[in-house]
Amino acid sequence: MPAVGGFDKGTGKAYPGNLTPYVTLTCVVAAMGGLIFGYDIGISGGVTSMAPFLRKFFPSVYRKEALDKFTNQYCKFDSETLTLFTSSLYLAALLSSLVASTVTRKFGRKLSILFGGLLFCSGAIVNGAAKAVWMLIVGRILLGFGIGFANQSVPLYLSEMAPYKYRGALNIGFQLSITIGILVANILNYFFAQIKGGWGWRLSLGGAGVPALIITVGSLVLPDTPNSMIERGQHEGVKTKLRRIRGVHDVEEEFNDLVVASEASKLVEHPWRNLLQRKYRPHLTMAILIPFFQQLTGINVIMFYGPVFFNTIGFADDASLMFAVITGGVNFLATIVSIYSVDKWGRRFLFLEGGTQMLICQVT
């Protein structure tokens, strides 16, 4: 019988496999792809709250923020160019994810991760050396392209490499890296804003190159996943790789099921049209509504625009940056808890608990 989610559909038992040091190391390196996304989320809001940055690239916003004492603080950041600077990354990430899905499938997860790292590194260099607004926007677009590739390939890589028993915890490693990136970015923003001369924003923006280099170099030494090799018709050596990944000798059953699953997927015609069939509608509906409503809670706005948000409600520049650090720290600690509990209590429990917690907080 074909494999379903890491266990045999006929017996209901998970395939044999251990959490080997080899798998742990590769998953940790791959999960670093989340750093580039998290770092950018945390860095952008802090930079746009720094007076020297605004004075150089967005003087109209700086004049309103520094000199206009009568206009509402929120309205002082009403700038189409500033909005383009922040939002261009997400538009680029959306567009690149469409291409990244094809690259990830046809050329492997490793190559897609490599592209993501190189593009993000290029964007960090352009932003750190920016002399004009157009350089900032070009850099942001390159960052978005990198995020699109990394977000498409890293979670898939982690799922395919991790043993079934530890898949939830290792997959959340990507989310953990995002929260680490947010926290580190907020801390760096706080300290870089103290640099005399007003050039600390360059270190904040250029610092994105560090996580980009980690994932770029890491992608060169990461092994390809057995699923990806079989998907691309490279069956030779897959069993040897499975034995090393799983830490057991008996991988015949999992190998056969991976081959069967790959062949079955190639026979599927019109996959997007199939998703609209009646039997798949509940799954499709929840797959869309869960992240949609998660976004509507506003947490991503807080993470992205945290320093600006706290600034607009009356906090001083340093205080607003510190509150962003606190928010990032809480996010990081919550992710640590979820890593421990996801495989112990299950995804459904975490979903219900998290939803209840968010509902209570939203009401209060």
UniProtKB/TrEMBL annotation:
Record PROSITE patterns: MFS, SUGAR_TRANSPORT_1, SUGAR_TRANSPORT_2
Record carries keyword Transport: yes
The Major facilitator superfamily (MFS) profile domain, residue ranges: 26-364
UniProt GO cellular component terms: membrane
UniProt-listed Gene3D superfamilies: MFS general substrate transporter like domains
Domain of life of the source: Eukaryota
Keywords (A to Z) from UniProt: Membrane, Sugar transport, Symport, Transmembrane, Transmembrane helix, Transport
Subcellular location field: Membrane
One Gene Ontology molecular-function label: symporter activity
Parts of the chain that traverse the membrane: 19-39, 82-104, 111-130, 136-158, 170-193, 199-222, 284-308, 320-342
Entry keyword Transmembrane: yes
Membrane topology: Multi-pass membrane protein
Family: Belongs to the major facilitator superfamily. Sugar transporter (TC 2.A.1.1) family.
Protein name stated in the entry: Major facilitator superfamily (MFS) profile domain-containing protein
